[in-house]
Structures are given as structure tokens and as C-alpha cells.
């Protein structure tokens, strides 16, 4: 019989206690929702042997194997280690990053979400923070990964530039715009920048090169969360370069570690100090939008 371990030890190994005495759910590390078919075979075998023959797919693209008895925690951990599947994170840590498939697969994808996910995950996953820190990466403003609900959200965006001399006012851009940011009145086309969500659809459909890319990059949201007191994230920067995005991310994590009190999320710190303090500490001029 395996030796019983304390709950702190088990938590570090990815085990979350269940309501059933002596049973745990094993949380596995999944970055960006990606697992190989070989990974899945190992997980299925583990669930059959040490669980109840099923797995739970979490709301954050994770995998958990429930109903693992305390006596089997070492054995299932060893099986996962041999398969190269690490335990997931819980508690006061940077959690697994969620990401859509981005421009590797999706026709709407503006950025390579999986590449960004892999880079951040490699350096930051499981690192200690004052409470918890959730990150999401989405390929376009459709926001399938709900970046506005995360402590740090990264969205691919593209700002259009209208070249009037190329326009034949065919209306394709106006028709495809889902937020009514484009208007054609008396043969004159205008774009409302306050309505434009920078999805790039107008650029894709324009056959006359009248809609061109003015700027393409990463739009950043900070401070979103769900739970008992949900908050939508604040857009702090739009269409910045990849190096700037990484720099802002690293400075945000550093700011959180330096200023957070016990149990605070990043938005709680921003609320306490004020957005201007956060802006000064990050070192970039914010383009704020709720």
C-alpha cells in the first residue's frame, strides 16, 4: 500500500481533494489545449486503472482524472511522469495558459496564439504569485478564449487604413462589418474608429485594396476575472508589437508580485493604487477602454 501524503504535497503534485473522503482529482498540465494522441492514450489508461474510467475537461482547456484514491496517487503520478505529462497548477501560482489555435489553423486568426502560449508557459507556468494569475491568448476580436475574463489577456488585432482613391464603394466592407463601424452615405465611405474592433474582416473582403493594414499586432487586457465578483478586463494597449507585449506581460507580473496583498488579484491591486500608478510602473502610455 502506498504511503499517505499530506495535502500540501499532493496539491503540488496536481491532486485536488474531492468531497469523497480519501479521493482526489489529478489535474494535468495542458498548455493552450494541446495534447498529443499518445498523451490521451496514457491519460485514458490512467483513468481506467486508477480512476473511474473517465476524465473531466475543464473550462480552461485542462484535463483532470477524478476519483483517484490516496493509495494510488504515487502510482498515477509515476505513470504521468513516464508519459511526460506534468501536473497542473493550483493555489498561488501562474495557472496554465489557455489559447485558441490562432493563425496556424483558424482563417480568422491574426496572431500565432500557440507560439505565444508555448513561450509564456515555458517560462512562467507554475511560478509563485500572491494569489493566482490567469492568462489567455486569442487570435482575433471574436475572443473565443474570452481574454477579457483573465488577469492578462492577449488578442490579435489589425487596424484598417482606408485608401479612398482605390475605393469603388461596392459595399462589401460595410456588409461584412459586424459592429457597423463602416458607413457609406452619398457615395462616401467612412470608418468610425470608436466602433471598429480591429478584426480585419473589411481588409480581407476588399477586392480593390482600398482597405489596407495600418497596424497589426497584440491588444492587451488586464484585470479580468470571473467567480463571485466577476470583472471585465481593461484594455490598456492596442496593436502593439510582440516584443512590447512580452515586456508589458513581464512588468505586469512583477508589479503584481511587488504590490499585491494576501488574496488579491491584479485588478484588486490596480483598484487600490489606481490605474495611473499601474501605468507609470509599467512604463507605457495606456490606451484605456473597459
Automatic annotation (TrEMBL):
Molecular functions per Gene Ontology: 4 iron, 4 sulfur cluster binding; heme binding; metal ion binding; oxidoreductase activity
Pfam families reported in the protein's UniProt record: Fer4, NIR_SIR, NIR_SIR_ferr
Alphabetical keyword list: 4Fe-4S, Heme, Iron, Iron-sulfur, Metal-binding, Oxidoreductase
Domain 4Fe-4S ferredoxin-type: 158-186, 187-216
Signal peptide: none
Family classification: Belongs to the nitrite and sulfite reductase 4Fe-4S domain family.
Name of the featured protein: Dissimilatory sulfite reductase (Desulfoviridin), alpha/beta subunit
Organism: Methanomethylovorans hollandica (strain DSM 15978 / NBRC 107637 / DMS1)
